[in-house]
Specification:
The complex is a heterodimer of chains A (206) and B (467).
Chain A lengths: L7 E8 L7 H4 L19 H4 L21 E3 L12 H9 L3 E4 L4 H9 L4 E3 L2 H13 L4 E5 L4 E4 L2 E4 L4 H8 L5 H6 L2 H10 L1 H4 L7
Parallel strand pairs in A: 1-2, 2-3, 3-4
Antiparallel strand pairs in A: 1-5, 5-6, 6-7
Chain B lengths: L4 H9 E4 L5 E4 L2 E4 L5 H10 L9 E4 L16 H17 L2 E3 L9 H7 L8 E4 L13 E4 L2 H10 L1 E4 L3 E8 L8 H12 L7 E6 L1 H4 L3 H9 L8 E4 L3 H7 L8 H14 L9 E6 L6 E3 L7 E3 L12 H14 L14 E4 L1 H4 L2 H11 L9 E4 L4 H9 L2 H8 L2 E2 L20 E4 L15 E4 L2 H10 L5 H5 L1
Parallel strand pairs in B: 3-4, 3-6, 4-5, 6-7, 9-10, 9-12, 10-11, 15-16, 15-18, 16-17, 18-19
Antiparallel strand pairs in B: 1-2, 2-8, 13-14
Classes of the chains: A alpha/beta (206), B alpha/beta (467).
Chain lengths: 206, 467
């Protein structure tokens, strides 16, 4: 995926209630035995979408009313746990393009950013209102505006937050960081030259 | 006004300010393993870019490694494919790979410190959230995602925002039978699993200063379980003594220069912090994280919490925890039945952990129905433990002595829970499904407490066993 400017995002939402939804819940480790990200979409939220007998549990990701949703709604500390980028990759493969929650685990939010998925925060009361809206009127479009830091839905406007640097990354289209980092080649070499552990006591052969 | 270690190390490694306002930060050591790297190498290949600093990049295999047999190909075709990808990528880009045949293989967060790769004043990145472990040596170390692994491979840098720093002061002395694991579980239980968001944790105080390097590694390892991506301890004489003579530590001619640099990165006595927290060590008792996140922990003398008596913000996750575990609110923690015991992981798979567990296991027997595993964190740990006869102590007590790897910490290899088994585990996460069974239950505790639980067949206060 190459970097592009992301200012706005509009679409339906899928509500995933609960605090501290961890990355093992989003994509259980056993499905990470792969050298690509291609197969992850089918396993997203695997263990909470089926009961021990394999029967569907009625998880929002299986609810036909939320098919085609692009915004995931959640509560506090969403994505806590491991650093696996497999978690946002699995959500993206299902169709998620943005995540709106009360708060995020830091590595998860960074991993979302790295693949072009804005992770924005809302107040707890607004999260509740949005979750309820998506549950009762799933056909409603949510309109996320990163420039204005607003989310419009069901005739209401909600303020959203994200770290300013992270917001800029979307507004200037530099979320795919590698190209940008490569541009700093000469400065990278200058830092390497001044680091004592590279210049004065590098690793012996071991 | 003095500076803290984070600010010193950050300033030293800042390449430039990026248009977003984040910093481009140089990474002094990049550790790579088989799970989060293959896609990153594929992205490099797709863009025709090489690895900028292969001599600052080291690889090992740990997550998918079977611990009962080292024979190749692995029985699991997918695991074999991941292993081959790592071997091929390391060979292709000139990266030193500590494979099973090297005698140096092990869990990435065990081998970095024990080989002397992790040093004070470095920035260290690895595609694994428990990279915070290496902060015990006075490094700024953090977990990254796969796109960032790609960035480090290609540029030896990352785009990052500087975190705030919270000083966590652990005062007093730990009582016998109370370990570093209990300290970090106590901190997370106090500050919450998201209490560290946006922060690095600097651990200090009398109890931390008195700790060995291996105990400090346990503390920093679980920083991320408290929401802090980075956790570190200022380098001191314990740090330098630990590093001296290790294979990748500076040798004689360079040692003095290195120590001078390392001393200089420690937080100044008058350093400022964004926040402070104090924990009284002498009040701590052995902890058990019984719920579905590591913050849901209680002392072994305590009872499981009543949701109605806890703050509203905790209630929802507490109710979920009871729904999953089937435990009874208000029931005593001690006496909880245990089916499996796991001693190992990047949190507690080092020699001193195995020694403490062996003290408990020596001359005793694992309860009949308990499946008990000891999995050394690395081949060097295994060798050292065997040289002391610890493997024999464990075997005679009825534990299985396994080959090094992540094992039962996460369900990516054949060591998994079955059905609703309850596991006393010295690992770091008790998330639902973490140990491979969607209905399995995990009780996090110190290695000595796990050994005591294995022998009693239930959660037991290790202090009673040792006294």
């Amino acid at each position: 995926m190459s970097s592009s400017v992301i200012r706005q995002l509009k679409g339906r939402a899928v509500p995933v209630r609960g605090n501290d939804i961890d990355t093992d819940r989003i994509i259980p480790a056993r499905f990470m035995k792969t050298v690509s990200f291609d197969s992850l979409g089918q396993h997203v939220f695997h263990d909470v979408r089926r009961d021990p007998q394999g029967k569907p549990t009625g998880h929002p990701f299986d609810d036909p009313r939320h098919a085609g949703a692009v915004i995931l709604l959640a509560n506090r500390n969403f994505g806590c746990g491991s650093s696996r980028e497999h978690a946002p990759q699995a959500l993206a493969a299902w169709g998620i393009r943005a995540v709106v929650a009360e708060s995020f685990a830091e590595i998860f939010a960074g991993n979302c950013t790295a693949i072009g998925i804005p992770a924005v925060e809302v107040e707890a009361a607004d999260a509740e209102a949005l979750l309820r809206l998506a549950e009762t009127r799933p056909e409603t479009d949510l309109d996320l505006d990163l420039e204005a830091l607003r989310l419009q839905a069901g005739g209401k406007s909600y303020p959203v937050r994200m770290p300013e640097a992270r917001r800029k990354v979307f507004l200037i289209g530099s979320w795919d960081t590698m190209g940008l980092l490569l541009e700093g080649r000469s400065e990278i070499a200058a830092v390497a030259a001044r680091l004592p552990y590279l210049a004065e006591f590098p690793y012996p052969r071991g | 006004m003095g500076k803290n270690l984070l600010d010193k190390v950050w300033d030293l490694h800042t390449v430039r300010r990026l248009p977003s306002g984040e910093d481009q930060l140089f990474i002094g050591l990049h550790l790579v393993h088989e799970v989060t790297s293959p896609q990153a190498f594929a992205m490099l290949e797709a863009r025709g870019i090489g690895v900028l600093h292969p001599k600052r990049t080291f690889a090992t295999a740990d997550h998918i490694i079977p611990t009962d047999s080292s024979s190749r190909p692995f029985a699991d075709r997918l695991a074999e494919e991941m292993m081959r990808a790592l071997e091929a990528n390391a060979a292709r880009y000139g990266i030193r790979f500590f494979g099973p045949g090297s005698g140096l293989q092990g869990i990435v967060h065990v081998i970095g410190p024990e080989l002397g790769l992790s040093q004070p004043g470095l920035t260290i990145a690895c595609g694994d959230s428990h990279t915070s472990t290496h902060g015990a040596l006075g490094a700024i170390a953090f977990g990254i995602g796969t796109s960032q692994v790609r960035d480090v491979l290609a540029t030896q840098t990352l785009s990052l925002a500087r975190p705030k720093v919270r000083r966590i002061e652990v005062r007093g002395r730990l009582r016998a039978g109370v370990y570093a694991k209990d300290v970090i579980l106590g901190i997370i239980a106090s500050l919450g699993v998201n209490g560290g968001l946006g922060h690095a944790y600097e651990y200090g105080g009398q109890a931390v200063e008195a700790m060995s390097m291996e105990e400090r590694l346990t503390i920093c390892n679980m920083s991320i379980e408290g929401g802090a991506r980075v956790g570190y301890i200022n380098p001191d004489q314990t740090t330098f003594a630990y590093l001296q003579g290790r294979p990748f530590a500076p040798h004689d001619g360079q040692w003095e220069k290195a120590v001078r640099f390392w001393r200089g990165v420690a937080s100044d006595p008058d350093a400022t912090y964004d926040d402070r927290f104090v924990l009284e060590a002498d009040r701590l008792q052995p902890m058990v994280a019984w719920g579905i996140n590591p913050g849901q922990a209680a002392g072994v003398e305590e009872k499981l919490p009543l949701p109605g008596e806890r703050p509203a913000a905790e209630r929802e996750t507490l109710e979920k925890a009871y729904a999953h575990t089937g435990f009874t609110p208000g029931a005593p923690v001690a006496g909880t039945r245990v089916d499996v015991a796991f001693i190992g992981s990047c949190t507690n798979g080092r020699l001193s952990d195995l020694r403490e567990a062996a003290r408990v296991a020596r001359g005793r027997k694992v309860a009949g129905r308990v499946r008990a595993l000891v999995v050394p964190g690395s081949q060097r740990v295994a060798d050292a433990a065997q040289a002391e006869g610890l493997d024999q102590v464990f075997r005679e007590a009825g534990f299985q002595w396994r080959l090094p790897g992540c094992s039962m910490c996460l369900g990516m290899n054949p060591d998994v829970l079955v059905g609703e088994e309850v596991c006393a585990s010295s690992s770091n996460r008790n998330f639902i499904g973490r140990q491979g069974s969607p209905r399995g239950r995990t009780l996090l505790m110190s290695p000595a407490m796990v050994a005591a639980a294995a022998i009693a067949g239930q959660v037991t206060d290790v202090r009673e066993v040792l006294s």
